Amino acid sequence: MKYTVMFKILTLLLNKRKMTANEIARRYEISVRSVYRYVEEMIVCGVPIDVSRGRYGGLAIADTYRLPAGYFTREEYAATINALNAMSSQINDENLISAREKLESKQKSEKRELSVCGNIIVDGGTWGDNKKFSEKMRVCEKAVNECLSLNIDYISRSGEHSKRVIDPYVLVFKQNVWYVYAFCHTKQNFRTFKIGRIRSAAFTDRTFEKKPFTRDDVDLNFYYTENELIDITLEIDKNSVADVEEWLGVDNIEPYGNALIATITQPNDNALVNKILSYGGAVKVLQPEALKNKIKTAVKNIYQSI
After folding, report:
1. Out of 40, 118, 199, 275, which residue is the most buried by the measure of CB atoms under 10 Å away?
2. Could you give the 3-state DSSP secondary structure of residue 282?
3. What is the CATH code of the structural domain delimited by 226-305?
4. pLDDT confidence tier of residue 124, bands split at 50, 70 and 90
């Protein structure tokens, strides 16, 4: 009985996205206390439900959360839901209504949109994508297009966990990574958020009006100052050039005698060291000396840990 009710609450939230504990308690004839207890158990299991109390509070599930895909096609879903709608208008059966709501929530999970701009198609997913990232992209894109504020659960590079309300203005694609440029209500200023660091996102009940802005207003060096960037020169093994081109781009690699050389500017952090090491010796640092020493130290530490 307990887990049956919990699953009903989950599918109801997937369909409605936000309800009060009192509404759920009346629907399933349980106490408000039981509703909160069931929701807490679902949160422990990883379901991103936001619990807010007060006059305008309620239980809201992240718009980025979806159940695993099933075996219905979109046309089969539509036909089945239409039939259930017709039947439920004639037969007042709680099980029939519950089945329809489950299918409606499932149908929404099957919808995966691709950004289309003129002759460009952008697929926000990754290879072997389990749709978690794609759902975050879908929600952010919808928020940008329709001026919808978002509640996000965000984890910063330093590991700081925070919940914020943001007004997304534009999506930014840089160095093969997606970001959203938005006005942050917590900081009362514009910030750039890495979409991969958004743990969950949910639409609020609010819309916003975009202030006029241009491309120059968006700081594309949002993570690094000039002091954190360094000019580096790399020598690339010809057998690995295709892999390195994926990282640096074909325009940044030039033949120099019998070698292939890349002179670029990169963030001076541990991620750069790890990236170079990931090529297993196919990328050799020529300059600067400080970076060469970092690579040597990292290799020594790896050897000693084996």
Report:
1. 199
2. coil
3. 3.30.70
4. low
Q: Where are the domains of the chain?
A: 2-60+70-110, 115-217, 226-305
The pLDDT-based confidence of 71 (bands split at 50, 70, 90) is very low
Is the pLDDT at 54 greater than 80? The verdict is: no
E strands in 41-132: 49-52, 58-61, 115-117, 120-122
pLDDT in tens, 149-205: 999 999 887 788 899 999 999 988 877 778 899 999 999 999 989 888 898 898 988
**Token duo for residue 264:** 């670029």
- Options 2.40.240, 1.10.12, 3.40.50, 1.10.10; which CATH number does 2-60+70-110 get? 1.10.10
* Strand order across the beta sheet in which 58-61 lies: 18-19, 58-61, 49-52
Q: What is the pTM of this model?
A: 0.55
CATH topology for the 115-217 domain: SH3 type barrels. (2.30.30)
Per the listing, tokens 């489950």 go with 102
Peptide bond into 267 cis (omega under 30): no
Kindly list the distances between the CA atom of residue 114 and the CA atoms of 86, 122, 135, in Å, as whole numbers in the listed order.
Answer: 32, 6, 11
Q: How many residues does the chain have?
A: 306
Separation of alpha carbons 279 and 230, rounded Å: 20
Question: Number of H helices and number of E strands within the chain?
Answer: 9, 14
pLDDT, one tens digit per residue, over 2-32 is: 777 888 888 888 877 788 888 898 888 889 8
238 closest CA partner among 252, 225, 214, 254: 254
| CA distances for 95 relative to 78, 98, 251, angstroms | 19, 5, 61
